[in-house]
Amino acid sequence: MSFTGPSMGSGGTTARRAFEFGRTYVVRPKGKHQATVVWLHGLGDNGSSWSQLLETLPLPNIKWICPTAPTQPITVFGGFPSTAWFDVGDLSEDAPDDVEGLDAAAAHVANLLSTEPADIKLGIGGFSMGAATSLYSATCFTLGKYANGNQYPGNLSAVVGLSGWLPCSKTLSNKIEGVEEAARRAISLPILLCHGKGDDVVPYKFGEKSSRVLASTGFQDVTFKAYNGLGHYTIPQEMDEVCTWLTSKLGLEGCSS
C-alpha cells in the first residue's frame, strides 16, 4: 500500500504538503523545573488525553508539552482524514515511510523545545505513532539533520517510545556509520522502549526489532521492556517504569508520592 506522497503541481514541480498542527496542551511542573518533555499521542488522538494522564504522574520536576498532530488523509483508512504525525499505509516490514510527514513532525517537536531555558534537560516521548515520531526525532538529533538535509537544532537527553516502532530503520546504520559526531551522540542518548506482547495494532515484534536495530547501529543506552498480556494501551506498571527511568536518566530530584 503506497503512501500519499507529494502531489505534482503545474509545470512538473513537486507541491509540498501543508501541515497544520492542532492545539498544544502544557502541564506545568509542580516543583522545581528541571526537564521538559514533549509527549506525542497516537493516531486519531489529541494532546489533551495524554496531558491529563501525565499530570497525575509523580514527576514534579518535569514540564510536559502535549501537541496535537495535523488532521490529514490516512492511507490505511482509505484516505479518510485523522489526526496523525505522518501518513501510514500498512504496518509491514516493507511499508514505505512518509519521510516528509516525519520531518515536519520532528521539526514541530524541536520547535516546541527550542524556547526552553538552556539549563533545562529536554526529552521526547510518545505512544504508538507518537512513539515512532519520538524515535525518528532521536535519529534526526543523532545525525544532526532531518532527512531533507535541514539542520536539527537542540539537544536531547532522553527518548521514550511506548507501543511504537522505528521509522526508516533499514537506512539508519548507513547514515550513522563513519560519522563521528553521530556515533558519539548515539552512544550517549538514553532510549526507553516499552511494548505489550498482546499488542494487536503495532505487533510486539516491531518494538522488539526496533530495539535491536537501535542497539546494532550504536545506540548503547537502549532499554526494552516487554509486558505479558498487554495490548495496544498503557498500564500503571508501565508508567511507573517510565517515571523511574526518566528520574534516573534526567537526573531529577526524585519522585514525590
TrEMBL record:
Short name of one Pfam family for this protein?
A: Abhydrolase_2
Instruction: Identify the InterPro entries for this entry.
Output: AB_hydrolase_fold, PLipase/COase/thioEstase
Query: Which stretches make up the Phospholipase/carboxylesterase/thioesterase domain?
Result: 25-247
Source domain of life: Eukaryota
Q: What is this protein called?
A: Phospholipase/carboxylesterase/thioesterase domain-containing protein
Q: From what organism does this protein derive?
A: Hevea brasiliensis
